[in-house]
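Dear support,

I submitted the protein below through the web form. The confirmation email said the job was done, but the results page showed an empty box. After a refresh the structure appeared. I'm attaching both so you can tell me whether what I see now is the final result or a partial one.
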Amino acid sequence: MMIISEDDDGDILETDYFVDEAGDPALFNRKGHVIVGTEGCSKYFMLGKLDIEDPGALSNEMEALRNELLRDPYFKNVPSMQPEARKTARAFHAKDDLPEVRHAVFKLLTSKKGEIRFYAVVRDKRELVSYVHQRNERDAKYRYTENEAYDTLVSELFRKFRFSADVMRIRFARRGAKDRTRALERALEEANREFQRSYGFPNDVETTIACLDSAAHCGLQAVDYYLWALQRFYERDEERYIDLIWPQVGEVHDLDFIEEGRRGVIYRKDNVLSIESRTPPKKKRRI
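What the results page shows now:
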């Protein structure tokens, strides 16, 4: 039984994280051909977590915003706003929402500058394909699975910045029909082992996890929006959305980008994620 510590006022320090993905971990088709970057298959796979100071208050505000939009006559006959479509009328989802809806949601989320913090890890799937091929050369029995890629990113996402709370509640956006709670627990256990290897002491945090549909909690709808902004940057070189959310970004860890000969770059306030920061300097031509 873990003993939970208290702060100076005797209160238990609690943290709520909401986790979702963007892109997809698919690398191959049924014939084993690489499909990364083809139509319908992303070039990057990323996982993000949102640290929300008061999830209940944010949920109330997001629900109030959705109800306000649904009552607006401007959206009266918009298909995605109808209950039977099971889209915006049910839950916010950046990919499905109208631009006007996205603008309203981003305006609400980015007004919470000191109350929301976003973290993400990103994999370049072309580099992941190379890893899988190398692994197959060493071990003919190895078979890549999409859950393997997801669980690895879970460990990466939670192996740092976990010692500021006594209780941590993590809500994952549900993936598929199977219950993957135990697999996620193992991924978090690996994150704990990595934490101890890095810092020399255990990460004693009481952790509970749940896998939910995004419609079940607005926190999951919020992290979807931040991931959508990040994905637009990586897949389409669109900076406007990442610039919008950047004041609320704690860290984006690009696991595969090579800078100054080293693989893996961390983008923070002192190293802003931008097209310029990811463009290698031009070599000077000899005269």
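Response: this is the final, complete result; the empty box was a page-load delay. Helices lie at 55-71, 99-110, 125-138, 146-158, 181-199, 218-236, 240-245.
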